[in-house]
Amino acid sequence: MRKTKFFAVFALLFLLLLCACNSSEVTKINLAEVTRSLFYAPQYVALEKGFFEDEGLEVELQTTWGGDTTMTALLSDGADIALVGSETSIYVYAQDSKDYAINFAQLTQTDGTFLVAKDPDPNFTWENVAGSKFLGQRIGGMPQMVGEYVLKQHGINPHTDLELTQNIDFANIPGAFATGEYEYVQLFEPTASVFEKEGQGHIVASFGEESGTVPYTVFMAKQSFLNEDPETITKFTRAIYKAQQWVADNSAEEIAKVIEPYFEDTDLEILTSSIERYKNQDSFATDPILEEAEWSNLKAIMDEAGELPADVPYEDLVNTEFAEDVISN
After folding, report:
1. Signal peptide span per the entry (predicted)?
2. Which of 86, 108, 269, 312 lies in the 20 to 30 Å Cα band around 100?
3. Does the 113-211 domain belong in CATH 3.40.190.10?
4. DSSP 173-222
């Protein structure tokens, strides 16, 4: 009798210990971001506020510097999840990839670049850009495609009506503009605000405001990962949604303080004003759902730039089930 009772107690303790161990299990996620940008503020908020940890996820962030290298990391299993422009998923799909990337959670919903003029232009109109020396972004990337799209909407053909330069590496564009004879450039924050503060340039327009909503930067994973580990994708998406809501509910100054460790070389004042500019134009998505209308706008922009390799249906490369689940629950 005593042996039976002893083994019963022992079994109960073992089960409790097993449950405790299971409840504290941590899933490691390798996350690749296409560049380091305060445009991705909600992602850094999720990391700093512990939203991933709350979901039992240990996220290791790596900056892979460029759409091509980011997708290579994802497709070769160097990363589990990638934060990159959704146009890259279309490029991969068009190459008949067997295990292509699926967009499952949207982070930003507008273009993040601003038109910066070398000289002050308080009476700026888009017609002023015609005939100018314009420093654009790399061919095939979202900034360049959106830039061309907006210019064409204002009757300017970037390839015939401008002295357009597109062969400067992303990291070297600010320096090239500062030292060169270019009259206009496309810049992300906080670089645009830094240039303005230092008198090296003047923000005259926003490409994000001009181009409408678009799935500019999206979290994606291979189809096989979504199929094999949907629970992890759900947890990851839930953490991002919490961060998106936190960003929507808090001031630019509070957001800047949280993400400051990721931008040690940028003044808190510049971080704050840059985030405020993005918040004012609704650049940060408030939920992770990528809408079909946004997907259609993306394809229209790519098509206008001559960079759409295939008319990929929304349902082929977008999965909103995880986002809808975390929102509804």
Report:
1. 1-23
2. 108
3. yes
4. HHHHHHHS--SEEEEETTHHHHHHHHTS-EEEEEHHHHH-----EEEEEE
Token couple for 297: 């706008």
Which among 111, 105, 38 is positioned nearest to 241, based on CA atoms? 105
Q: Which residues contact 279 (CB under 8 A, 6 or more apart)?
A: 247, 252
Token look-up 């422009």 returns 85
Distance in angstroms (rounded) separating the CA atoms of residues 167 and 158:
14
- Geometric angle at alpha carbon 189, from 172 and 92, rounded to 5°: 70
CATH of 27-110+214-328, one of 3.40.920.10, 3.40.190.10, 2.40.37.10, 3.10.180.10: 3.40.190.10
Ranges of each domain in the chain: 27-110+214-328, 113-211
What local confidence, expressed as pLDDT, does residue 253 receive?
98
Q: What percent of the chain is predicted at pLDDT more than 90?
A: 88
